[in-house]
C-alpha cells in the first residue's frame, strides 16, 4: 500500500496589472530548496530563474513569461507569505550608528514586516503612452521576468531593456512596431537628452513593489524608517 497524498491548500490573489484573479498553492519542499540555493549562491540570474520556475509550478493557468515584472514580484510575495510565513523579522540599527538627532547609537532593533500589508505602489504621473517629440509618440509595455533576467547584468543593458519594452512608435498617420531589438535600440540611441529622459521616466514611475516601516529604536528611543523595494528585499 502506498503512502497517502497530503492535501495542499489553495489560495487566490488578484494581479495588480489587471485585477485578474488567480489561484495558487504554497511552495513544496523541493521548490523552496531550489530558491534557497539560488539565494545562497547570490547569483541574480539564478534567483530570477528560480522565482519564475516556482511561480510557474505553483500558480494555476498563468503564462509567467507574459506577466509584467511587478505582477511577478507581487505573486512571489504572496507565495512566500503562504509558504513560509506572513511575517519577516529583520534586525536594524541607525545608518552609520547615528540617529536622526546626530547622536551615536549602535543598538539593533527587531523590525517585523507583515507581508499582507505590502502592495504594488503606483505613481499618478506614470504614462505608458507619450510623445517623444512634436511628431512621434511611443507606446511602452512593461518588462517581463525574461527581459529582466536577460538584461539584468552587462554593459549597455539598460538601453537593451528599454528597447525590449517598446511596443510601437506612432505618428498622426501610422503605427510602427519595432523590427526586432536592434531596430528599437537604434531608435533610442538617436534620441536627445530630453527625449531620453521622457523614456526613462516610464521606468522610474512604473508600478513597483514597495513598502516602508517606521520603528522606534530600543536603544535611544528615536524613530527611523526602513524602505523595502523589489522582491529581493523580502527574501
Key descriptive features of the protein:
four-stranded antiparallel β-sheet, globular, alpha+beta, three-stranded antiparallel β-sheet, 235 residues
* Element string (H = helix, E = strand): EEHHHEEEEEHHEEHHEE
Structural class of the secondary structure composition? alpha+beta
The percent of residues in helical segments reads 25-40%
- The chain-level mean pLDDT equals 89
Major sheet summary line: 4 strands, antiparallel
Task: Describe the protein's architecture and organization.
The protein is built from seven helices and eleven strands. The protein has helices at 29-41, 44-58, 69-83, 145-150, 157-164, 181-189, 193-205, and strands at 11-14, 21-24, 87-92, 109-114, 119-121, 129-131, 137-140, 166-170, 175-176, 208-216, 223-229. It has a four-stranded antiparallel beta sheet. A three-stranded antiparallel beta sheet has the order 5-10-11. α1 (29-41) packs antiparallel against α2 and α5 (157-164) crosses α6. The protein is globular, with a radius of gyration of 21 Å.
Amino acid at each position: 500500500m502506498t503512502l497517502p497524498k497530503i492535501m495542499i491548500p489553495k489560495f487566490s490573489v488578484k494581479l495588480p496589472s489587471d485585477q485578474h484573479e488567480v489561484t495558487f498553492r504554497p511552495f513544496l519542499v523541493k521548490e523552496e530548496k531550489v530558491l534557497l540555493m539560488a539565494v545562497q549562491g547570490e547569483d541574480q540570474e539564478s534567483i530570477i530563474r528560480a522565482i519564475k520556475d516556482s511561480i510557474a509550478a505553483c500558480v494555476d493557468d498563468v503564462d509567467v513569461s507574459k506577466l509584467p515584472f511587478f505582477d511577478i514580484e507581487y505573486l512571489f510575495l504572496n507565495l512566500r507569505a503562504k509558504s513560509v510565513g506572513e511575517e519577516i523579522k529583520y534586525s536594524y540599527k541607525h545608518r552609520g550608528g547615528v540617529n536622526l538627532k546626530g547622536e551615536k547609537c549602535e543598538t539593533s532593533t527587531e523590525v517585523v514586516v507583515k507581508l499582507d500589508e505590502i502592495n504594488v505602489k503606483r505613481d499618478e504621473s506614470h504614462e505608458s503612452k507619450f510623445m517623444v517629440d512634436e511628431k512621434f509618440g511611443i507606446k511602452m509595455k512593461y518588462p517581463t521576468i525574461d527581459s529582466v533576467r536577460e538584461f539584468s547584468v552587462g554593459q549597455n543593458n539598460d538601453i537593451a531593456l528599454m528597447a525590449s519594452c517598446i511596443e510601437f512608435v506612432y505618428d498622426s498617420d501610422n503605427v510602427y512596431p519595432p523590427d526586432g531589438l536592434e531596430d528599437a535600440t537604434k531608435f533610442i540611441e538617436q534620441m536627445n537628452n530630453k527625449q531620453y529622459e521622457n523614456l526613462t521616466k516610464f521606468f522610474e514611475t512604473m508600478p513597483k513593489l514597495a513598502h516602508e516601516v517606521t520603528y522606534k529604536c530600543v536603544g535611544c528611543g528615536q524613530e527611523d524608517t526602513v524602505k523595502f523595494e523589489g522582491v529581493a528585499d523580502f527574501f
